[in-house]
């Protein structure tokens, strides 16, 4: 990729809504992305390799457990800082943000919220420092949008559980040290458990040939009579609400992250349009390109306001799951639309790896599918405003 010249748009002076700490955290993440992610990310995506060299940097900017208390190795930040970190990382690449989201909201969060003190002490500091990487196994080959139908199961064998089943489409699976896995017990109740790499019967084959999130590793989790020690069960919450609670936190981070991808596409397209001369004038001087750019900044600004407000609601413990769904759905669609428009502003150059836009566009095709598809989030809003579930 050519030099990272990113300048963040702030059309409504939203920085005035941020505290000094928010700006410090955001700027540190922004600088780190420019320095450590932008120079290597295109290559990593082209080669379909997760860039392991950035793991310690992610830990240093607080991307692993931003809101987890410091006593467990987290950064102890608020929800706005968490969101801003996700925004800046996804400005670099959605796949890198995925790794941070999974580690923070889908692995550290359930251990913090549903684990006992021993589990928190054993795993959280190592996850915060990046010594351990984790993954989250909810989706199965036959149960994606409907995780409540899962067939992965545990059987009580007295001194341990026996785990059988398979999970699919799992971010970080191929190299994760631990997996937070959701499985049904003999009564059909969903339980969370920590599966460690090296346990006999546990394998994590990689999923190849993706056109999206190529810098993030995706794989399966296969459990063939895996013996799970009883102390690896998360004791403090069960039922489908337990994994869905983790998803609230991750979906919130994605709502911010998508703004980052959109800002990068807009900024790239604006700069290109001002520099590219056709018919003896910059294409930015044409009404058609101005329409695209003006609509992009309008949608980014609306998403920034929506998401900032959601962050303040989360800081006050007042955000609902349905409000989070609305923001995830709106912002990812907004980012994808902007990526497609921005790609066109660059003409043929837009399809090359010289610019980040096409990579963002392809990444966002996963982001609009995972953590609840675009349709599912619409149905969650529909349920919230009518009281009538339309899933089944
Ligand atoms: P339903 O009957 O509505 O609910 C079952 C129980 O869960 C509770 N609940 C929630 N709790 C916390 N947070 C939420 N967001 C919740 N939504 C529901 C609910 O109150 C109930 O509790 P209880 O005590 O009464 O049992 O469940 P349903 O089976 O009808 O399904 C509802 C639906 C479709 C909304 C849900 O299944 C859903 O969200 N499906 C989408 C699945 C999904 O998002 N999968 C994501 C997998 S992980 C992933 O994609 C990671 S990608 C990471 C990356 O790389 O960044
Ligand atoms: P399906 O559920 O089969 O849906 C197919 C289509 O049907 C979609 O358009 C959907 O919107 C629509 N649909 C489904 N139900 C309804 C309905 N009731 N009404 C109307 N339309 C409906 N999962 C994890 O557990 N952990 C991970 O780390 C993880 N990482 C991922 C990484 C990547 C790159 C990808 C692509 C996925 C990842 N996932 C992960 C899985 C992801 O959460 C699922 O793909 C997603 O929840 C959708 O499930 P599905 O793909 O089985 O689609």
UniProtKB/TrEMBL annotation:
Pfam assignment, any one: Acyl-CoA_dh_M
InterPro entries membership: Acyl-CoA_Oxase/DH_mid-dom (IPR006091), Acyl-CoA_Oxase/DH_mid-dom_sf (IPR046373), AcylCo_DH-like_C (IPR036250), AcylCo_DH/oxidase_C (IPR009075), AcylCoA_DH/ox_N (IPR013786), AcylCoA_DH/ox_N_sf (IPR037069), AcylCoA_DH/oxidase_NM_dom_sf (IPR009100), Glutaryl-CoA_DH_mitochondrial (IPR052033)
Needed co-factor(s): FAD
Annotated ranges, domain Acyl-CoA oxidase/dehydrogenase middle: 135-226
Domain of life: Bacteria
UniProt entry keywords in alphabetical sequence: FAD, Flavoprotein, Oxidoreductase, Transit peptide
Signal sequence bounds: none
Name assigned to this protein: Acyl-CoA dehydrogenase family protein
Species, as recorded: Lutibacter aestuarii
